[in-house]
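Treating backbone geometry as a discrete language has practical consequences that deserve illustration. Part of our work consisted of pairing the sequence of a single chain with a tokenised description of its backbone. What the numbers capture is local backbone geometry rather than side-chain detail. For completeness, the protein is quoted in full, as a sequence line and a line of structure tokens:
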Amino acid sequence: MNQQNLIKVGLVQQANGADVDQNIDQLISNIRDCADQGAKLVVLQELHNSLYFCQTEDTDLFELAEPIPGPSTQTFGKLARELGIVLVTSLFEKRAPGIYHNTAVVLEKTGDIAGLYRKMHIPDDPAYYEKFYFTPGDLGFQPIATSVGKLGVLVCWDQWYPEAARLMAMAGADLLIYPTAIGWESTDPEEEKQRQLQAWMISQRGHAVANGLPVISVNRTGHEADPSGHTNGIQFWGHSFVAGPQGEIIIEASADQEENKVVEVNLRRSEDVRRIWPFFRDRRIDAFQGLTQRYLL
């Protein structure tokens, strides 16, 4: 087998606290651990520098945002260059006064910025008040070319949209990657919690199957309190995972432990799977115009 088709991927599943510097120090240590295990691509969770601040609407929290390029791209870019890895980060971007984005930044092994993806689908639910903070992305669904392949980077809420995954695949992505921050509301019964978790995993595994591509999903873990006290906070459910192009689980982290997972992904399998399941060949592109409408009734 051509070794160029094999890539070791590192997933950093971390629990964060209120001290941003401490979180970043921990991230650096975890990234180094993945690189020591041979990872050439390392993926971090959504908004990894801080607590998940969207549990409340607070204008003071815009101070967490930073420009791109900026301090985080400099810190993580230097580390990527030192370790010779491609690194997928997730930042609170200050683009201009009053314009902020939830932005994934891919750093090449040279330390340079390979590309950005600005989160396109922005939720607004209890404890996930992201519309208050983030302007919807305007860069479209374009894979980011790197030395390890074309990365179809999407972010969290984008996980539920097959159109986003499809467009990334149609644009030549070799992998679908989802930095994530999702968890349980503590008052939900256990049955409902498990339904939500399974739906989350099934949706992304479905993207893998429908597009014949590996999927990498990296979630945070741990409990984060609601600063307003209106809810019991979020228990992030972890379960970071990699699925293969037939939806098979290659590796999966636990619900409640901080873990660095490193696994080998065979990019050649996408070609093999698409030969036996030629979904792209059989798409009725002449009949899909309705997909650009909000609803058809």
Remarks:
- Residues 59 and 133 are 9 Å apart (CA to CA).
- The mean pLDDT is 97.
- The longest helix spans residues 190-211.
